[in-house]
Every structure is written in structure tokens, then in C-alpha cells.
Amino acid sequence: MNSAGWDVAITPYGPLLIEGNSRWDMRVAPQLLGEAPMEKYEKYFGKKK
User: Fold this and answer.
1) Do 17 and 6 meet the contact criterion of CB atoms below 8 Å apart?
2) Cross-strand pairs, 8
3) What's the confidence (pLDDT) of residue 39?
4) Which residues touch 20 (CB under 8 Å, ≥6 apart)?
């Protein structure tokens, strides 16, 4: 499956799109999110098939 990972900054004026990346990894910044990204994904969207 093809997808893009987006770098987004949260500003006082709302979200700001920085860039899109064709090669991204969900394991990069779990410490910033407070939980593993895959667990956050599964909480909202369910387990991947």
C-alpha cells in the first residue's frame, strides 16, 4: 500500500503542514505521543487486517 507521512506543526493559528514523506515509519517518535503510535492508531481505527 502506498501512503505518505506528513510532518505537521501545531501553531497558535492552527495546524501547519510542513512536508510529506514517501518513506516514513510509525515507530519514530512514540515518546513524543505518550504512547506507541500503532496503539494510538488501533485505539481509533481498530487493528490492521
Assistant:
1) yes
2) 17
3) 73
4) 4, 5, 6, 7
Per-residue pLDDT tens over the stretch 14-40: 999 999 888 776 666 555 666 666 777
- Give the type of residue at 21: N
Overall number of domains in the chain: 1
Show the cell assigned to 11: 501553531
Polymer length of the chain: 49
**What's the grid cell of residue 19?**
512536508
Q: Which are the contacts of 25, defined by CB distance < 8 A and separation ≥ 6?
A: 5
Its domain, for residue 13, covers 5-45
- Strand extents, DSSP E, the chain: 5-11, 14-21
